[in-house]
Amino acid sequence: MTTVPGRPPSPADRIESGDAVAPGPLHEVDRRAVLALAARAQAHDGVAPLSEEHLLALRTPEAHVLVHREAGAIVAAASRSGSAAEVVVDPARRRRGHGAALVAGVLAQDPNVGFWAHGDLPGARALAASAGLEAARSLLVLERPVGPADLDPDVAGALAAAGLTVTTHADAVATDAGAGVPRPSQGRGAADALLSAWLELNALAFADHPEQGRWTRADLDARLAEPWYDPALLAVATRAGAVVGSVWVKPVGPERAEIYVLAAHPASGGGVGRALLRWATAQVAARGATSLELYVDGANTRARALYERTGYAERTRDVQYLTLSRPPRGGVTIGA
Known about the structure:
This protein is an alpha/beta fold. 33% of the residues lie in helices and 28% in strands. It has 2 domains: 2-139 and 322-335, Aminopeptidase (3-Layer(aba) Sandwich), CATH 3.40.630; 147-289, Aminopeptidase (3-Layer(aba) Sandwich), CATH 3.40.630. The protein is globular. The chain has a 12-stranded mixed beta sheet, sandwiched between helices. The chain has a two-stranded parallel sheet with strand order 1-2. Residues 1-24 have low confidence and may be disordered. Helix 9 (272-286) links the parallel strand 11 (256-264) and strand 12 (291-297). Helix 5 packs antiparallel against helix 9 and helix 6 (169-179) packs antiparallel against helix 7 (189-205). Its EC number is 2.3.1.189. One of its GO terms (biological process) is mycothiol biosynthetic process. InterPro entries: Acyl_CoA_acyltransferase, GNAT_dom, MshD_Acetyltransferase, Mycothiol_AcTrfase. Residues 1-23 are annotated as: Disordered.
């Protein structure tokens, strides 16, 4: 088993008798094996077992992963990122104790983590119950169809009526190019100012969110470097010069997109989220997408009401399982 870098091996690391313990970053061969394992699980379950945060971490030397092997091959893994972890078990090797052993190993290192069950599949519920965990939080995946009516030629008027000016990252980059601002422009120019404003608003709008609210500039930059990133789909809205909202759309495929992040300043008043959602839907429609999805906390009734009024319906849900009596927080994803 590979252990968390910087921490001496413990008995929890030796999940399989005779399995080698190797402190330090995951070896490149094993890293690829974990990614392949996650892909097999997703194909089998129809749900991705590893979230974007952990997939990004697996590309770096800082990846912290515990792996469980059979005959030398990785058949289960627990990825750690900060106080969170995610667990995935090979579909062909389930019901052999791998998932339970990894959950026990994670809890031995940090008993305060929570376990997310993507899709809340029966196997994940059974694993949670066997580990003495209870459901504490839900994350809904909502979806709505997109069609020609969403091209919305009146979207500019709707923004103006709300007193909003929308500036995209692409707009800011073009402004810098016209002003002769050299690249990279870290700490300089309109593009960096827009990204800094986005990050500040994100922290403010999601101050109580255990995952989204702790993003750093490094987290943001990692996503800006992803192949899917489109600077024309990250926008910041201002009203009378003050930042009041933002929206970021992630292309998922040729016909699908995701409202990746939608944020409104707590003091912005009503209408900002609705106007930005309308703008984003028009952008997606113009690119030919036929489906738009988003994630929302099950307890966020205000946001859910907005989305349901604009045509979204629940497609699936993730459920967070916690050790009994522990408060909800960001945590582990169960892929078993």
